[in-house]
């Protein structure tokens, strides 16, 4: 069974009554609930726990980490970011949601500013499937429609993705690469744009389906971490003696 840890900053929900009305137990609990229904082994972790809930033990027992953060990216300690980064290079999957695009871990993995355009106007978003045969789009029709979502617009300052799964169109005219995949070291990364804290995006069945598919796609393979460094010859090399 895939072991998932859902990490959430968990500040908006505690500090704002209107956000708490949407996610009374926190965004992490809502995401955990539909992942459990899908048969995954799910735990949660939040910023204000010791070591942000991401101890060595937790990470060593995590196949796929989900990341939601927004207003407190800078409060995530560099030591924990390095720990997560190491685990991704060793093969742990990472699903980065919405405003996690500016998290320390995503920026470190991308190596760019990860900046974008944004607008909070409650506009409609239509997420078009760009890659219908991709496992992350399994079970999704031609598009997903969200009544209200925060606009994220291109240009998105990230490296060209390995695969583009969704393009989001917004009522106000912008477009965005809303679902994309990357590989870093032995790890797989899925970035998925929807999920502003004031909208009920993570209750939408298609959004849930994409996140479940994303987790399954990011699952590590059983291949051992590659052996690097000095390498013995596999068969005798004919050495010509230079005179
Ligand atoms: Zn947002």
SSE diagram, text form:
Elements: E1 3-8, H1 12-15, H2 17-22, H3 27-37, E2 41-46, H4 56-60, E3 64-68, H5 78-90, E4 93-97, H6 104-110, E5 117-129, E6 143-153, E7 163-170, E8 175-184, E9 187-192, H7 205-218
Parallel strand pairs: 1-2, 1-3, 3-4, 4-9
Antiparallel strand pairs: 5-6, 5-7, 7-8, 8-9
Helix pairs in contact: 5-6
This protein binds zinc ion.
Task: Write up this protein.
This protein is of the alpha/beta class. It has a domain at 3-112 and 179-218: Class I glutamine amidotransferase (GATase) domain (Rossmann fold, 3-Layer(aba) Sandwich). The protein contains seven helices and nine strands, in the order E-H-H-H-E-H-E-H-E-H-E-E-E-E-E-H. The chain has helices at 12-15, 17-22, 27-37, 56-60, 78-90, 104-110, 205-218; strands spanning 3-8, 41-46, 64-68, 93-97, 117-129, 143-153, 163-170, 175-184, 187-192. Strands 2-1-3-4-9-8-7-5-6 form a nine-stranded mixed beta sheet. The chain starts with a strand and ends in a 25-residue tail after the last helix. It binds zinc ion. The site of zinc ion (ZN) has 4 residues, from loops. InterPro entries: Class_I_gatase-like, ThuA-like, Trehalose_catabolism_ThuA_prok. It comes from Paenibacillus forsythiae. Residues 3-218 form the ThuA-like domain.
